[in-house]
Amino acid sequence: MKNHSPWWIRIPLVFFLIFGLMEYFVDSGDKPAFIEHPITLIFMGVVLFLLVGIELIIKSVENVMFQTLSPEAQERYLETSSKQWEWKWAKKLREDMIGEKAVAEEGEIILDHNYDGIRELDNDLPPWWVYLFYASIVFAVVYLARYHVFNGENQDMEYERAVAEAQLEIENYKKTAKGLVDANTVELLTDASDIKAGEALYTANCVACHMADGGGGIGPNLTDEYWILGGGIKNVFHTISEGGRAGKGMVAWKQILKPAEMAQVASYILEELEGTTPANPKDAEGEVWVESK
Ligand code: HEC
């Protein structure tokens, strides 16, 4: 009788092999395939069912064959099959892979030369090493074909793709989480709804000092290209959020407005007021702001 592994090794081994292959090939993003696609659970259930079924068939075939044996052969079979699983294969594999000559056989491979009593064995390369070497050649061929002939995705491309994906995610995230902006992340809003909201906020909070058309009064003119505290969305947001110079009258609006609202009113100023000609413009203050890209 052949010395093979018992069912409780075979079934899990094959099951997890197929499971691993499935996880590898089913595209499920960062999550395990069986979470992302519950149908794979059904698939693995069928696999398990088949594995058990095959084992049962093997068992019954063995039983039938057992009946046909002579009584002595049956006895011998029972004896060997009871010690089937003794890691014999593992021991044999280890020996095969190391490929050593037994000490008693060393005479066959000892070399002729003799340096002051030091002699040398002409051992073969250990098979495990040789197989690794062959495997690396196969790997190299596959690698060459995949990355240099068929232009597979290399690390650079993978990186670019990951960055592009991440950027897309950030964009989507920002759309749903406008409230998270600060002076460093704020961007000019151009949606009509944002500008409208900004206008309403401006009318409610800012006209007293900056005038409805932005021409300025207590506060500076917001329509010209001169800015005391810096122009551009980030500076304007910062000024609104943190206030102007001490004692000038421009408070830190972050106490009153939400970040999203400050982004809206800042965008309103830059989109709708800047560049227009107000009825009563206040003289330019500060310096011409040039957006440095
Ligand atoms: C009480 C009066 C007052 C109110 C109300 C006011 N501001 Fe001001 N604002 C000022 C003054 C004064 C300055 C100049 C600050 C300085 O010189 O440091 C200023 C400066 C600014 C600046 C910077 C201008 C520059 O040239 O750098 C912006 C932008 C601005 N205000 C936006 C707003 C917005 C938006 C609101 C409403 C949410 C608002 N302000 C409400 C008085 C006011």
UniProtKB/TrEMBL annotation:
Domain Cytochrome c residue range list: 193-273
Transmembrane portions of the chain: 6-26, 38-58, 128-145
Pfam families the record matches: Cytochrome_CBB3 (PF13442), FixP_N (PF14715)
Transmembrane is among the record's keywords: yes
Organism: Arenibacter antarcticus
Signal peptide: none
Name this polypeptide is given: Cbb3-type cytochrome c oxidase N-terminal domain-containing protein
Key words of the record: Coiled coil, Heme, Iron, Membrane, Metal-binding, Transmembrane, Transmembrane helix
Coiled-coil portions: 156-183
